[in-house]
Amino acid sequence: MDDTIVFLLFWLLQSSYKLLNIILRLTFNRCFMFGQTDAGSTRSLKVKIIGRAKSRGASAVHEVPGLDNFIFYFDSQVEDIETEINKPEVSLYGFTTEFAFFSVVSPGQSVWDGVFSTVEQFNKARYLILVPIRDLYKIVETANSTQNKTIFFLQHTDRCGSTLVTAMFKRLPDMQVFSVPESLYSAYYLYHVHCAVSLDQYKNMVRAAVSIHCLTPHKMVFFKLNSVACTSQMNMLYDLFPHSRTVFLSRNSKDVISSMTRIINTHSQSCRLLGWSRDSLVNDGVWATEKHNIPRDIAGILLHNWTACMEALDAAKMPVKAFTYEALVADPKEFAEDILRFFDLPDKHVGDMVKAMEMDSQEGTKVSRSNLKPIKSA
Description:
single chain, alpha/beta, 15 helices, 42% helix, globular
């Protein structure tokens, strides 16, 4: 069934479900979603997922899911939240103004093994854990998880080989790789798009997101961030984590626009109308330019977003090592050696890193080479 039809049916079902919960809350002071209503804002909660949908399909990457993308019911209260979120099957997913919510998959699974963590967190989650923001901040302060970690950030434009570079770093021992962690993107949307939190609240969410991910036992942590939106966080991340190191990967704008257009064409017409609207693309770049200055056509917006990323690189307040997609494909070995040198890492695993070139780093996703459709000529 078309992804958009599924999403619309889900929306109708969820609306009915929410209405029923409102009635239950007003009548009995209870609801399926949160148990007793006074528990919703004071305790950490575990909820069971019974339905989920995205407007562009469950495998969509550039679509920020929130609690409204799920139908769930109250399962239990979480007494020892610090122990719970340290379990490998539990991962920080996103934020609301009141909660940080975590995706809980089956024991033995990990959302970080896939190509894009946001897709894994959405599709594999059996439960969500909702933690009051203030409780999460207490855990962050107590854990001090970033103190003895070596943190690397990969910032980039769209369609530049960033997923391939991420696959390279997954081959390094004692390196925990987070590919497009949704939590930082979620914080961006709350501040820049929805204007629901203050700048200080936004910074606290970004700090908490990185710190919670750094609870991993690995000594080195590599973040591949969302292009455009999280590129706007480059200087903020450095201010929060001055011992971190950042690299920037880009590709020439013409090829970026061409490749992104192929991705848009991969979705059905109805799916594009609902999920790949001009506004959805504008929201990815609104941090850099006033909305009335953004072009009307999709190609113009894609070029605007590419330019915004490059301007963020120019405005970086710390040393950033810039690489290009063209250099990556021309000489993968030299590319790997250069990036390891900048990170002060040994090059003894370069050969293994280069082997990542032998496969499609996005295989099994909607944006794999085999799924991309050619651009239709006018």
